[in-house]
Structure formats: structure tokens, C-alpha cells
Design goal:
79% of the residues lie in helices and 0% in strands. With 199 residues, it is mainly α.
Amino acid sequence: MNSTKNIFFKKIMTVLGVLWLVYLFFHMFSLLTFYNGEYAFNSFYNWFNNLFIYNFIVFILFAFLIFHVCVAAFRQFKNNKSKGINSFKSYDKDIPRIIVWGSVLSLLAFIFFHFIQMKLFNSDDIYQQMLNIFKQPIMLLIYFIGLLTLSAHLYHALTNVLQTLGISSKQYKLLVIFLILTLVVGFISIPFSIYVKQL
């Protein structure tokens, strides 16, 4: 892959990744309406899920995700081939590629699992569905692992974006950590609070 195409695809990956990051914050803040009570939570999601552009939003998000992953895989394999590097050779920091790609596949599996799970919810009472699901320790564990892989991916991706832009100061890295912690704490707070209440 020549350098021009490489830069072009990297920019596309970055834009799609940032759009997904924006969606993640929207998703987190919308979930936090859970703390406003059953009526507020159900009302919001009944409104959102019945928007005339809802299916279009879902389609766009998954199209962006698939394209993001395909571009990442294509760039990696092309770069490896041009450098004569085996796909399973360790990265510079001695992290085996199989672990890196394994975590990416785990994250993708979690996203699809979470989406299918939400589609199976009783749309009339999503609040109660969430209560039922997160009272199960196994679901809390799956959710925690999913957030862990997400945070690791975001840290790697966002710091790479900063390096690409020529930004490497500690302040910006701290901002990346703050954004990731905000997402993780926001997402995990609801299932954790549900589980704790039943103990």
C-alpha cells in the first residue's frame, strides 16, 4: 500500500472511530436516564426506538463499524506483508498479535451480542428487562469484560490518533484517560447498582 492510500484509509478509520465514540457518549448519557426512574427511562427509549430514522441510524453505525474493521485489517495485513512480518509476531511492546486481534474480536462479539440482546427486550418495559438481566452475575461479568476490551481499544486508538496529529503531551493523554474512564464508569454504574441492590 502506497503512503497516500495508507494516509487516506487511516483518516477514514479515524473519522469513523470518532463518530462511534460520539455515539458511545450518546448511548451512555441516554442509559443514565435509568436513574430518573422507570417512566422516564421507558419513555425515552420508546421515543428513540420509534424514530423514523432509527433503522437508518443502526444501519449507518454497523456499516461504519464493519468498514472500520475491514480497513484496519487490510492496512495491518498490507503493512505486515510489505515488511515481511508474520501476522502473529509480537508488536513493539511484546504484545502477541493474536492477543491484540483476539481482544478486537471479543469486542466485536460483545457489540453484536449486546445489540441482539437489546432487540430481544420487551419494548414496552425496557427498564424491567434491564433489572432482570443485570441481577444475573454472569451478565454483569460479560458486560464488565466488554467494557474492559472497549476501554483498551479506545486507549490504543485515541493515543494513536494523537500521535498522528503530532500531539503527545501528557495533558492530552490524561484527557484520553478521563474520557475512557467517564465512559466506563457511566456504563458500568447501572448494572453494578442493580446487582448491588439485590444483595
